[in-house]
Every structure is written in C-alpha cells, then in structure tokens.
Design goal:
Elements: E1 5-9, H1 14-30, E2 34-40, H2 56-77, E3 84-90, H3 93-101, E4 106-112, H4 118-123, H5 127-134, E5 139-142
Parallel strand pairs: 1-2, 1-4, 2-3, 4-5
Helix pairs in contact: 3-5
Amino acid sequence: MRTGNILWPTDFSDTASHALQYAIEMANLYQVGIRILHVVEQPSGDENYMLLAITPQELAENMEDAAASKMHELLSQLNTNLKIETVIRHGDANNEILAESNSGDIGMVVIASHGRTGLSHFLNANVAESIVRKSDCPVLVVK
C-alpha cells in the first residue's frame, strides 16, 4: 500500500492535463495527496549581445509569475477533496522532477509522455523516460 503523495509534474500542456486525471484516480485509490510540480527552466541569453530586452532574471520571474497564474487557474478548476500541494521550481526539468520524486514523501509519479516517435524522439530529450529510469519510486507514464 502506498503512503506517499502522488507527484504530478506538469508543463500545463493538454497531454499533462490528461495525466492529471490518472493522478487523481491513483490518489483517491491510495487515499493520499497530490503534489503538483512545475519547473521553470532558466532562460538563456547573452546580455552583452542585447538579445533580450529584459535580463534573464526578469524573464525567469515573468515565467514564474505565469506558471503561478496557470497553477492557480488549474486549482480553481479541480473539484476534489484531496490534499493538493503546489510547487514551482527553477532549473532543469529532469533534475528537479527527480529531486522531488526522490525526496522521500512521494509514493508514485504520474507523468505525461509527449509521445514523440522516430527522429523527433531521438532529437528531443524525453523527460518521462529519464524519470522512469532514475526515480526511486514507481512511475506511471500516461500517453
């Protein structure tokens, strides 16, 4: 029997939203809470070349504000009695999701796969695959 929370990493895509339904179902089954995680990746830009009209720090803050707004909107749409916790982290999605999944109080990760195939699969890093390989807890990948 699982006692840890269900971790649902999201990029706010439709595919991730589909995985949320599975996370809710698993949380209800095991009578645990859900931790929603969104990772804001650090924007890159060279201020010396004036590629960005704002600094990378300002851009990251704007991205975090947008993520918090989306998280608030998502929570307002959920109709559940489950305990729900939200986390916004900065950094590499793989590393941050793994750190959260291996934190000790996560019983399962429910993550969406973007379902890339062929050449696109090899050219784009697959976060879900990485989490499956490296997480200490069970991972449910939803297509």
